[in-house]
Amino acid sequence: MNKNKTTHLMAGVFIIIFVAVFLILTGRFIYIQATGEINGVSLEEWAEQKRTSSFTLSAERGKIYDNNGMVLAYDRPTYRMYAIIDETYSEKSEAPLHVEDPQKTAEILAPLLDVEVSDILDPLKRGLENNRFQVEFGKIGKEIPQKKKDEIEELNIPGIQFEEEALRYYPNGMFASHIIGFARETEVKTEEGIRDEIVGIAGMENEMNELLGGKQGYISYQRDRYNKKLLDPKEIIHLPEDGDDVYLTIDQKIQTLMEEALSQVDEQYNPKKMTAIVMDPKTGKVLAMSSRPSYDPNNPTNVENWYNDVISTPFEPGSTIKMFTWAAAIEEGVYNGAEKFKSGSYQPNEKINKINDHNGGKGWGPISYDEGFQRSSNVAAAKLAWEKLGADTFLEYLHAFDFDEETGIDLPGEVSGQILYNWPLEKITTAFGQGSTTTPIQQMKAATAIANGGKMLQPYVIDKIVDSSTGETIEQKEPRVVGEPISEGTSQQVLELLDSVVNGENGTGKSYQLDDYTVGGKSGTAEIPNPDGPGYLTGRENYVFSFLGMAPIEDPQLMMYVSVQQPELEPTEARSAPVSFIFKNVMENSLHYLNIDPSNEEKDVVQQLTVPKVVGGNSSEIVAELKDKGLEVSLVGDGESIVSASVEEGETVFPSERVILVTDEPVMPDITGWSLRDVMKLAELMQLKTETFGNGYVVTQNIPKGTPLKKNDYLGIELLPPNEEQDEETNNNEEGTEGISDESTSQEE
C-alpha cells in the first residue's frame, strides 16, 4: 500500500511538472505567434534581414580637366578577384560553381598573378575551416587590369569571380602632380558601417574631395539560400549621384612644355629643388605650375617631397624682390631715376652692418638709381628703403603687396612667408630679398600689379565646376582684384625698368632675352641659410637662382617665375644657365602657342603650322603634304585612306609636334622613343586600354610592330628617362665666391 501511494504521488508530481512545462511552452509559442518577437527582437525583421542582400552602388568620381578639356584624372575600371568556396552554391548547377580543388586553383592562379602558391592557397584553406561562403585575397586580388582578368576567365577556374572596382588614374603621369594630387581607396566610416571609398589625399583631389566624390547609392533585395532573387524581392534602389567635374586653368600644352624643360634641367644639373609657374597677369589664372622633386600620382611611393613648393615653401627670395622696392619708391614720389649715388657699399651708421653690392663691394662708382636697378645694386635698394622711403613707409608697401599673408589660391597647403622687421638691418635687407621670406606664388601675385596697371589679382587654378550628368556649369570663376598697391603710372615705369634689366646695356638679365618677344624681368641669387650653424652657405652653387619675367613687356600677356636651387654647374658655366633654359623654352613657345603677336618683328619668327583636311584623304598624299610643312608624321597602318587623326582641320601646331594618322587598316607602329603624351594620343584614337610603367620615353611595348589593332586592345608600355642607364656626371666644384652677398656678376646673370 505504501509503495502504491508513493508511485501515485510521484506520478502526480510528474504530471503536474509536465503540465506546467507544456503550459509554459504553449504559452511561449502563443506569445511569439501573437507578438512576433523573441527577447525584444522582431522575428519578421530578423528573417527579412537574413534573406535581404544589400550592395553599395558606387558613385563615379568626377573628372579633372585642363582648360581645353583634356582629361587629367578619371576613374579607370579595374577588378577585384574573390573565390566562392561554399559547395551549396553549386547544388543547382551541373558544372561546379565553387572552388573544388584549392591546391590546383592556387597552382594555376599564382604564376598569373606573380605570387607564391601559398598566397592563394592559405586564404582558401582558412575560408573552408571557418565555413565561409567566399574569400578575398587582399592586395594581390585587387586592381587587376582588364587583360589579366580576361586571361584568368579564359581558364574557366570554378569559383573564381571578379567584381569591377574603380581605380583613380592619371594618364599623364607626373604631369602637374602637385596641383592635381592623387586619390586612393580608403576605409571610410558610414552609417551602414565601414566601406572602401576613393578619397582625395593631396592637391586638387583633396581640396575638392567632397565635390568630386559625389554620393554613394545602394540596392537591396530579398533572396533565397542560393543568393537568387525571390519572385517578390522587395527591391529598393537608391541611385548614386556621380561627382562633379573640375576644370582647371592649367593649359596642357604649356604645362607639358614646363614639365619637359624641368626634366631636362633635372637630368643635366641635378639641383636640390626647382619651381616654376606661368600665369596670365591680366586674370590671375595659373596656366602651368610644377616643382621638383615630383612624383607619379599613379604610384606615389618613395616620394621625396609632398609639398607644392610654389605655394608651401617660403624662402629668402633674393633680388627679384627689388622690383617691389623700386615700385614703392616710385609710387611714394621719392624716386628720381637719374639721381646718382655711390655704389659698392653702404653703412647707415656704425651700429648697422655694412651692405655690399654683389661684386664684392667694389660697385661701379657713382651711378644712377635706374642703372642701380639694371645692375641689381644692393646699395641702391638699401638707400631707397632706408633713406628715401623710410622703414615704416616701406613696411606699409610690403603689406599693400600682401607679403604678410597667404594669396588665397584654391590649393591646399599654402604657407605664407614672413616679414622680418624687428631690427634695423632686417628692415634694410628686406629691400633686396634677404632675411624676410616669401613664396613664389606670393611674388607672382604681387607682380600682377606691375603687369596689370597697378591692379593686383588673386591667383587661382580652378576655372569652373561642371555637373557631370548634365554638362551644366555650376560655378564659373572670374578674375578678382584684391588690391591696388601702385598706380598705373608707377606700373608702367617699373615695366620700363624691368625691360632695361634684360635689354639694357648694363642689365643683369641678358641671358633671358627671347628671339621673338621683348622680355622684362628681374633675376635673383638668394643665399641659403646654413642648417648647421649661423650665417649662409658658401660656394659658387649654394644659392637659389631665380627669375621673374613677363612678356611682351609693352603689354605683358604671360608672366613666369623659375627658381633652381643648388644646381651642379661646370666651372665656366653661367649660374643663370639652368633658370634661363627653362624660362626661354617655356615662355617663347607658350607665347607662340597662344598666338601672341611677336614684338621683335625684325627677327625670324617660328610660326605654327595650320593643319589641312586629313581625314578622308589619301594616306600617302597626306603624309607627303604634312612632311613638306615640316611636321613629324606617324602613320598607323598600311591602308590607303585616313580615318582619324590626332589633329583637326584648321588646328595650329608646332613643327616639332607629332601628328598621328590612322588608316583604314591600322597596325601597331613602333612607338619606341615616343613620349607618354604621344602614346595617349594613339590610345585615344584607337580606343586602346593602356597601362604604363615608369616615366620618360617608351623603351618597350607589348604589342609588336605590325600587329593589327582593334578597339579595346591592351597596350602596355615601359618608359624611362633619357640616358637613365648612363652614369650621371656631376660637378663637384667647390670654388668659393667670397664677397658675393646676393647676386653673381652681371656676366653670370
From TrEMBL:
Recorded metabolic or biological pathway in which this protein acts: Cell wall biogenesis; peptidoglycan biosynthesis
Record's keyword terms, sorted: Membrane, Transmembrane, Transmembrane helix
Cellular location(s): Membrane
GO biological process terms, semicolon-separated: cell wall organization; peptidoglycan biosynthetic process
An example Gene Ontology CC term for this record: plasma membrane
Enzyme class: hydrolase
SMART domains noted in UniProt: PASTA (SM00740)
Catalytic activity: Preferential cleavage: (Ac)2-L-Lys-D-Ala-|-D-Ala. Also transpeptidation of peptidyl-alanyl moieties that are N-acyl substituents of D-alanine
Family statement drawn from the similarity comment of this UniProt entry: Belongs to the transpeptidase family.
Name this polypeptide is given: serine-type D-Ala-D-Ala carboxypeptidase
Native source organism of the sequence: Oceanobacillus profundus
Origin organism lineage: Bacteria, Bacillati, Bacillota, Bacilli, Bacillales
